[in-house]
Amino acid sequence: MLTLPFDEPPSNQTGSPFRTSWAANQLIRSVKPEPGRAPEDTFESRRGIGERDDREEEEKEKEEEEEEKEQGGGQRRRGSYKKKASQARLERVRLRRIEANARERNRMHSLNNALDRLRKVVPCHSRTQKLSKIETLRLARNYIWALGEILNTGKRPDLLTFVQTLCKGLSQPTTSLVASCLQLNPRSFISEPSGESFPLYPAYHHHHHGAEAVGCSSVDSGRPLGSFCGPYDSLYDSPSPDGSSPLDAGTLNPAVNFDGIFSLKREEPGDYRSCHYGLRYCSVSQGSSTDLGPYDVRLRGQFYQAQEELNKPFTY
DNA sequence: TAGGCCATCTGGTCCT
DNA sequence: AGGACCAGATGGCCTA
């Protein structure tokens, strides 16, 4: 499933639903504000948790007052001391909770940042249509699996098979996006309404070293697949990147050096040396672009010489 | 309007 | 004791 475009700030940053209550504000003022976030932006208010805490505190105070009454006036001083100590302890607990919340937010933010970085290095990086977290992880997993297979076999799969591998287990919108990114008609392999779907691992003939395209499907884009056809056969011997992947069992180490051989897209915009596979697309507009509908993805056409060197082992 | 996705809070558990 | 990590709960936003 696709989520908000990259351009669009997350909803929690603009018009956040997490409004504050007076009680929460009073507490938060004593906590260091989170960078990039309004300190009054808390969760207590909308859930009424701050109010609930206040109520609990009142109830505790009432109980303590009743205890004092039962114990008589002589122990009133000790009771009030207990009350103060209890209040201080409560304050400490609540303060720790608020600090823990802030830490948890930061932790999740860093996790999301890592996911954003991952989004940028998976094969389909759309600037306007962001992959969801789970789809990003699935796509990355398939990508790693596919790259590992290429390394293991030394063979380059045909485009259709490669895309099918990437899309294994992805939702239909994401599959369409990936297919569009790679200029493949999603209908080539997405399940038809009739329920029939293109087999992900068709029973092609096995070629141990042949480069002939056997069963190489034509794609609607009309792009010449040429070197992408054929030698992915050995992949069909391996489990698919769904739940039964060797990656799951830890038996297959893709051993992909992302900064080396494949050198995926780096953080710096405009660095295209990382074009592995000859089919890298990116979101940065550069030169000729391809209008692919709502996804605003652009074809990365140029390859640097260094990249060609890196890809040499995969050319036939 | 239902469902998907998300951010956040929260309490529990584990570790240092 | 306190921090990291985790999973459940909650409610908002968005889209089909």
TrEMBL record:
Residues 31-53 have a biased composition (Basic and acidic residues). One of its GO terms (cellular component) is nucleus. This is Neuronal differentiation 6a. Residues 95-147 form the BHLH domain. InterPro entries: bHLH_dom (IPR011598), bHLH_transcription_factors (IPR050359), HLH_DNA-bd_sf (IPR036638), NeuroD_DUF (IPR022575). Residues 1-88 are annotated as: Disordered. Keywords: Developmental protein, Differentiation, DNA-binding, Neurogenesis, Nucleus, Transcription, Transcription regulation. GO terms for molecular function: DNA-binding transcription factor activity, RNA polymerase II-specific; E-box binding; protein dimerization activity. It comes from the Eukaryota. Residues 10-28 have a biased composition (Polar residues). Residues 75-86 have a biased composition (Basic residues). GO terms for biological process: axon development; positive regulation of neurogenesis; positive regulation of transcription by RNA polymerase II; sensory organ development. Residues 54-69 have a biased composition (Acidic residues). Efficient DNA binding requires dimerization with another bHLH protein. The gene is neurod6a. Gene3D superfamilies: Helix-loop-helix DNA-binding domain.
